[in-house]
Design brief:
Number of strands: 2
Distance between the termini: 45 Å
Structural class: mainly alpha
Number of domains: 1
Strand content: under 5%
Order of helices and strands: HHHHEHHHHEHHHHH
Radius of gyration: 18 Å
Shape: globular
Helix content: over 70%
Strand order of the largest sheet: 1-2
Number of helices: 13
Length: 282
């Protein structure tokens, strides 16, 4: 019989996997660096929470959070059309700080105290766990499917070299906007699930630390890899639950992991496993 702790842990894993795969769509597939991705998680969380508090059904709040996050992501994507690489990273980092600063100053969003007493999902904790894991599985399946479509090939070309992609008639602007809208919309869904799981949200829950955390999941798993980003997201979601020291020194640990991975295995777990398989075959 599964207990309350296991239910909570599996729900957390489902949310983390969905969030990590959402960034993987933007950074891993399309090569657009985002250091403020937690802002879209927060957008989905706030919209979903306020919708349900206002009386909307659970599903409506969840979908609304995803749609609003996608719309905000598309606006941010417009900025990506003019900036690249380091400048894009700085721009998205600014979006993250702007989100935290904005929500802190808005009394109708709860200000620094946030929103407490968010209604529980109508089907309980077990149902929420099933939804969270289902959304994570659907996101993974969609990511695998997307890689095999023309849009996925266009994303690969843009990630490799935008200028070359333009020479083969790829509409770079349209696909970059699509990547941001898809990735941030899925992040918004994860945010709605987060709000219904924790039942309390505050601006600091979606700050720079969370953006670094999800970036670590993607980099450690292997940028662009669906399977290994999923594995890394699940592992990094579980570790703080099992070891208090990990939670206390999260930024330090993730910084060390990012440095080590980029230095020793730039391809992350996906690259490491690929090298091991080649070695065994040889």
């Amino acid at each position: 019989m599964i207990g309350a702790y296991e239910i909570s842990l599996l729900t957390t894993i489902g949310i983390a996997v969905t969030f990590a795969l959402s960034l993987n769509l933007v950074t891993g597939f399309c090569g657009q660096i985002s250091l403020g991705h937690a802002a879209f998680l927060g957008t989905g969380a706030y919209v979903a929470a306020m919708s349900v508090v206002a009386g909307a059904p659970f599903a409506v709040g969840l979908i609304a959070g995803g749609l609003v996050a996608a719309a905000v992501g598309a606006v941010v994507g417009l900025a990506s059309l003019r900036v690249r690489h380091d400048f894009l990273a700085i721009t998205t980092m600014g979006v993250g700080f702007l989100f935290v600063g904005f929500t802190r100053q808005q009394d109708w969003l709860g200000g620094e105290m946030g929103i407490a007493g968010i209604p529980e999902a109508p089907f309980g904790k077990v149902g929420l766990m099933v939804v969270a894991l289902g959304v994570a599985a659907a996101t993974a399946a969609f990511s695998v499917y997307l890689k095999r479509t023309w849009m996925g090939f266009a994303f690969d070309a843009i990630a490799a070299d935008e200028d070359t992609a333009r020479t083969v008639a790829i509409d770079v602007s349209r696909y970059k906007l699509a990547a941001f809208a898809l990735g941030t919309g899925i992040a918004g869904l994860a945010g709605g699930l987060y709000a219904f799981n924790i039942r309390f949200i505050a601006p600091d829950s979606f700050g720079f630390v969370e953006s670094v955390t999800v970036l670590a999941m993607v980099v450690i798993g292997g940028i662009g890899s669906v399977l290994w980003v999923t594995v890394a997201a699940a592992a990094l979601a579980v570790l703080p639950q099992w070891f208090q020291a990990v939670d206390d020194y999260k930024l330090l640990l993730y910084g060390v992991l990012l440095f080590t991975v980029m230095r020793l295995s730039p391809g992350g777990l996906a690259g490491l496993v690929a090298r091991l398989v080649r070695g065994v075959r040889q």
